[in-house]
Amino acid sequence: RELTVELGERSYPIYIGQGIINQIVAYFDRAKLSRKSPLLIVTDETVAPLHLERVLTLLREGGFAVTACVVPAGETSKSLAQLEGIITAALQAGLDRSSAILALGGGVVGDLAGFAAASFMRGVRFVQIPTTILAHDSSVGGKVAVNHPMAKNIIGAFHQPELVLFDIELLLTLPPREVKAGLSEVIKHGLIWDAEFTQWCADHADELLDLDPDALSYALYIGCKVKSIVVSQDERENDLRAILNLGHTIGHALEAVAGYGELLHGEAIAIGMVGAAKLAQQFGYGEEIHKVTKDMFQKYGLPVRIPAHLDTDSIMSAMTHDKKFKEGTMVYIIPTEIGKVEIRKDVTVHQVREIVELLKEES
Ligand code: NAD
Ligand code: ZN
Asked: Is the pLDDT of residue 46 over 90?
């Protein structure tokens, strides 16, 4: 499967399929990547032993000069220290302005390698080879960043890749918990944009959880497609792009309070989406949305309630430090029906607090 993210001269293709990594050289030739300039692969310590050798070999056999820089796995690698390490590796490997930096990994590697590509020599070419389901989201849209100890994703840029090569064979090594968490973001794309796909997700949970190749490539295709439509219409997050934040207001706060690792991003936003559906009820949108949302996440083995030990005050203060907060009301994405959301600016902090309390009781 193939689709294009339409961004004028920065448009780029996304290829999704089983075993397509074997054609990496042909894809690189199509994208006109130069064999005269060295390439640098960024990956992490978990992905490297599983998939790095194969990619290095394919590229070297195809005549590309390529080296790899391996960072520790996990969110803490999205740091200025790791960025410096990548720049060092890029200089040692002799990268020039026509070189490309390749991200082979999940969203952490994608964001880090992407920011390295955006900043090295004021910007070199960038290729995404996602290895997590969640990375269908992070690899489309061009947002790249590292974290500061005080704030996530605060040092970043917009830097679109040349291409995204999404081989579902690389996903087969994912631990089940990462599979579920990644699917949470796929389901989100249905909930904000596509009622039919939402129903499809409800009907195909078993296949997706088993990583069935046909189901998975279809789901990733639709997920990438929804994201790319939204991003094409609003590259810089002026308005529409905000709808991608469904479930993220509460989700980000839960991740911060629980400590990264206890709740995965996909798990936190599943809870957040159930919360948004509850809020929709308070705005008079009927209980169907809440039922569908909650049933869906339960079917996928994702959490739908806030762990009782997380303190409401801490969650609220994590949320109100969030940039989406302004003077007593917050910008909030709520579903109005399945497959549609609205950006509301009149949700009060008090209302959100009530939802947080209710989410602790959700069974
Ligand atoms: P991740 O990159 O940390 O990957 C999750 C875990 O799975 C890691 O331990 C990793 O080593 C391991 N892993 C990756 N691929 C594997 C494979 N094929 N087999 C076995 N293990 C594998 O995290 P993620 O969930 O992919 O991404 C989360 C990050 O993405 C966050 O930092 C978030 O901020 C970012 N993100 C960015 C955007 C964006 O628009 N740029 C959007 C969403 C999320
Ligand atoms: Zn997300």
From this structure: yes
Residues 104 and 209 in one domain: no
Structural domains counted in the chain: 2
Pocket test for ligand 1, best of 21, 46, 154, 231 (most atoms within 8 A of CB): 46
Model pTM above 0.90 = yes
Among 155, 173, 191, the domain-final residue is 173
CB 193 within 8 A of CB 339: yes
Given a contact cutoff of 8 angstroms between Cβ atoms, the answer to whether 269 and 251 are in contact is yes
pLDDT digits (tens, 9 = 90+) for 93-102: 999 999 999 9
234 pLDDT more than 80:
no
Specify whether the CB–CB gap between 316 and 353 falls below 8 A: yes
Enclosing domain of residue 151: 2-173
Binding residues for NAD(+): 107-111, 131-132, 143, 152
Using the atom order of ligand 1, give the atom closest to the CA of residue 108: 2
143 classed as catalytic: yes
Same domain, 166 and 210: no
Identity of the amino acid at 170: L
Contact between 145 and 75 under an 8 Å Cβ cutoff? The reply is: no
Q: Is 125 a catalytic residue?
A: no
Whether 168 and 181 map to the same domain: the answer is no
Indicate which residue's Cα is closest to atom 40 of ligand 1.
138
Q: Identify the H or E element spanning 161.
A: none
Question: Of 115, 141, 173, which closes a domain?
Answer: 173
The verdict on whether 252 is a catalytic residue reads: yes
Are residue 133 and residue 202 in the same domain, yes or no?
no
Which atom of ligand 1 is found nearest the CA of 264? 25
337 and 275 within one domain = yes
